Amino acid sequence: EEYVSLIAELGFTATFSKLLEEDRQAELAELLAAKGVEYQSIHAPFSSINEIWKDSLAGEEVLDRFIRSADRCAELGIPIVVAHLSSGDGAPPVTDIGRARFDRFIDHAVSKNVRVAFENQRKLSNIAWAFESYTADDGVGFCWDCGHEACFAGGREYMPLFGSRLICTHIHDNFAVKDGDLHLLPFDGAIDFGRVAAQIASSGYDGPLMLEV
Predict the structure, then answer these.
(1) Residue 43's beta-bridge partner residues?
(2) Alpha-carbon distance 109 to 71, whole Å?
């Protein structure tokens, strides 16, 4: 309650959280609503995310966590669930079983009127597959994490590729060193936030500029 009061007093108008226990999530949603702070998204759990591409029980458990995140969004009127597609430089390739699981996830989220935002990590191939497979009309968009881009993408820029699909942001800073994912406040590292701002502006996105610090 103290945290919610502080962010409201400081002028923040939106926030997000990870997936919490059901009663805790509802309590947080109630506190935010009382202070007029939008609960923009839930970040789905991403532990063992690479299993979603494998024929394993763990892959089904990842899918279950995705679906529970979408359900929680629907229950509390939260419009977006953010999801990772993979983790690490050695992440598995796109597979048929992974495609089928993501189909189930997207279909379920759409049925609940919840949009899915795929967040950039390390592998261009996975996120490119997602935006080739699912359209904005499918309720699927892009969560641009400018910090991940700086320390994981080797100089590649994601907004020129996927900026037209932008539906939420994760904004934080680092020193653009490989694997140096520090989640610093903007301007405490080396990211060019003039470029970040220009790319967001040119995309037409007009939602909250969400920090992840």
Answers:
(1) 18, 82
(2) 8
Residue 149 CA to residue 9 CA, distance in Å, equals 31
> Any bridge partners for residue 42, and if so which?
17, 81
Helices and strands, counts by H and E, the chain: 8, 6
Nearest to 148 by CA among 120, 188, 125: 120
What is the distance between the alpha carbons of residues 55 and 97, in angstroms, rounded to a whole number? 7
Dihedral over alpha carbons 143, 51, 95, 114 (to 10 degrees) = -40
Statement: the pTM of the whole predicted model exceeds 0.85: yes
- Write the DSSP string, 149-181: HHHHSTT--SHHHHGGGEEEEEB-B----TT--
**Structure-token pair, residue 71:** 């359900």
Mark residue 48 as left, alpha or beta (left: phi above 0; alpha: psi -120 to 50; beta: remaining).
left
Q: Please work out, in degrees rounded to the nearest 5, the angle formed at the alpha carbon of residue 85 by the alpha carbons of 82 and 89.
A: 130
Classify residue 87 by its DSSP letter.
Answer: -
pLDDT, residue 102, reads: 98
Q: What is the pLDDT of residues 12-56, one digit of tens each?
A: 999 999 999 999 999 999 999 999 999 999 999 999 999 999 999
